[in-house]
């Protein structure tokens, strides 16, 4: 196909974006399949029928409502759901039939799971192992436009670092560039203090802090301190050590009480969850 230069260039960019979306679709299907396996395991343990046509109707209705909002044709959404539900049924060892032929077993109501109810210890790691590890989530995150990733990170930092940004304890970052690298998610952002906000910039960093998503979450959620993580080589500092160490000290002294409570709880829960999932994947007791 011979296209003039600008069109060829633009088509290349569009196709790269399409490839990312396709990666995201496959990653999402893989994640859905694992969750279906978890649902299957729970239903088996509870002794209820694996097929639940009422739930399937709800799943389809929700998806159609979203498809309509996003101007996706109803027939496309329907075929997507046919595929997803057939895959879930197959994963749970059911005959794949989308309700057109064999009559379905009557749906069985499952007892609601109470918030205080926790999974028995033997079940939790098995369920957690069904979640995709961060390396599998990476293609999904890469499907998000870089601009959105930046905005999310900038908004999160503005909240977490509101107090040090106001009281000047971040002034050492002015004009300096520090990178945060999430190794297993293959993400890297270079941060610079501009005015009264930390911006994600397109430039080479002077220093980098590198760690896995779980270790960085453990640090942010205050479940692990920076020294321990550096000592275990779970966190790595490269480049200008002084800048890196000053940033680390600031993290350590971060007035945690000034971080909004909801965010603190979310970080703490997220970090605990990531730690338990990692332990389950490694086959350790969490
Ligand atoms: C995943 C489940 O198992 C089956 C598959 C469903 C789905 O793919 O959404 C929904 C109901 C069940 O027939 C479930 O019960 O939630």
UniProtKB/TrEMBL annotation:
Transmembrane segments: none annotated. Keywords: Ubiquinone biosynthesis. InterPro entries: Chorismate_II_sf, CM_dom_sf, CM_II_prokaryot, SCP2_sterol-bd_dom, SCP2_sterol-bd_dom_sf, UbiT. The keyword Zinc does not apply. Required for O(2)-independent ubiquinone (coenzyme Q) biosynthesis. Likely functions as an accessory factor. Belongs to the UbiT family. This is Ubiquinone biosynthesis accessory factor UbiT. It comes from Rhodanobacter soli.
């Amino acid at each position: 196909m011979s296209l003039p230069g600008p069109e060829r260039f633009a088509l290349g960019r569009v196709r790269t974006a399409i490839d990312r979306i396709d990666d995201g679709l496959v990653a999402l299907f893989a994640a859905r399949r694992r969750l279906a396996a978890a649902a299957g395991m729970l239903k088996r343990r509870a002794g209820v029928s694996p097929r639940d046509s009422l739930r399937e109707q709800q799943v389809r209705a929700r998806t159609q409502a979203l498809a309509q909002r996003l101007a996706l044709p109803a027939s496309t959404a329907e075929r997507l759901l046919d595929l997803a539900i057939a895959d879930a049924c197959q994963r749970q060892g059911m005959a794949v039939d989308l309700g057109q032929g064999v009559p379905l077993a009557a749906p069985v109501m499952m007892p609601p799971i109470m918030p205080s109810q926790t999974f028995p210890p033997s079940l939790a790691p098995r369920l957690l192992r069904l979640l995709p590890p961060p390396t599998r989530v990476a293609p999904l995150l890469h499907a998000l436009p870089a601009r959105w990733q930046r905005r999310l990170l900038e908004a999160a930092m503005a909240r977490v670092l509101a107090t040090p940004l106001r009281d000047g304890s971040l002034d050492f970052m002015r004009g300096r560039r520090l990178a945060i690298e999430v190794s297993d998610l293959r993400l890297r952002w270079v941060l610079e203090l501009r005015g009264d906000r930390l911006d994600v910039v397109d430039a080479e960093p002077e220093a980098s802090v590198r760690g896995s998503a779980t270790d960085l979450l453990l640090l942010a959620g205050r479940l692990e301190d920076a020294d321990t993580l550096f000592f275990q080589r779970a966190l790595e500092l490269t480049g200008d050590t002084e800048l890196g160490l000053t940033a680390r000290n600031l993290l350590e002294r971060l007035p945690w009480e000034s971080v909004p409570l909801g965010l603190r709880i979310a970080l703490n829960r997220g970090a605990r969850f990531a730690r338990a999932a990692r332990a389950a994947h490694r086959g350790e007791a969490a």
